[in-house]
Amino acid sequence: MKRVLIVKVTSLGDIVQALPVVADIKRAFPGVQVDWAADEAFAEVVHWSENVDRVLCAPLRRFKKARRWADFKSIWASIAELRAYRYDFIIDIQGVYKSAIIAFLARSSRRIGYQAPDLGERGAAFAYTGRFSRRPQCNAWHGMRINAGEALGYQVEGPAVFKLRLPEPVRLPFASNGAPVAAFFHATSKDDKKWPVSHWVAIGRELTQRGFQLVLPWGSEGERVEAEQIASQLPGATVLPKMSVTEIAQMIDACALVIGTDTGFVHLAHALQKRTVMIFVATPPSHYGIESPFRSISIGDGKSVPSIGAALEAIDYVHTEPHEVAVQHGSAAA
């Protein structure tokens, strides 16, 4: 096998969590080239992967909103780039119309996608010459790895490998006072995913007492107002300026701890191997959560608001070193 195309066009968290599929393919087939097709809005994230050889992108989301002629020309040009090579396999791990169209337009006789019950949009099935097995009973991220492995004939082994390299920041958006930095990603895509402001304040006070410097990013005007509401009750906390995706990623990389709701940037923190706590209020952590021993953890059941105590326990967990656990177990055994 010489060349494979992965199609995963959106969104930030989903793309980040799908990147280990590339590492799996390259482990199974040394020397294979793996390209990736994504929406232009998220292409920079794929560029950070050291494993992806070529990133193909088009302004699909922007064209859908504005219908500008310049964006249409960009999409048309991207089709020629997409068809520049013939692929041994095309793996569509998105399963919607736009990803299926990309898979169909690319040059390959083997285009693999989800079975009908697992598709995001049933009509996407037109593009595929083969199907994955039914989605396995595990979280979505490991399920993508298993599906790709079955399609290409290899066994998934070991933990997820992200292998991201960010561009060096010109400067960070906060002045460091030498203390470890904790970022609060309080904003969410939907109101029902929010964690109460009072809970953020309580956690912030505890972390301040532990010597952390707190920073709060935001994206919209409403999110900025909420960030200021939280920061006003936490002396020394910094509401950051509005930043690009790359600048936020660089900020995350400078943090010692990231706490946030189920959002793309918290998934990115996990991929960058930061100590991360992800809070689930309205979505199931069993399907979309993060987990890495003593480094990343998800809290909540997706049906109720996780308590302040649960968040503090999670923070303690991600700051526990494995050797400390070994000592504790040894003491218990004695």
TrEMBL record:
Keywords: Cell inner membrane, Cell membrane, Glycosyltransferase, Lipopolysaccharide biosynthesis, Membrane, Transferase. It is found in: Cell inner membrane. Pfam families: Glyco_transf_9. Its EC number is 2.4.99.23. CDD domains: GT9_LPS_heptosyltransferase. It catalyses: an alpha-Kdo-(2->4)-alpha-Kdo-(2->6)-lipid A + ADP-L-glycero-beta-D-manno-heptose = an L-alpha-D-Hep-(1->5)-[alpha-Kdo-(2->4)]-alpha-Kdo-(2->6)-lipid A + ADP + H(+). GO terms for biological process: lipopolysaccharide core region biosynthetic process. Pathway: Bacterial outer membrane biogenesis; LPS core biosynthesis. It comes from the Bacteria. GO terms for molecular function: ADP-heptose-lipopolysaccharide heptosyltransferase activity. It is a peripheral membrane protein. GO terms for cellular component: cytosol; plasma membrane. Belongs to the glycosyltransferase 9 family. This is Lipopolysaccharide heptosyltransferase 1.
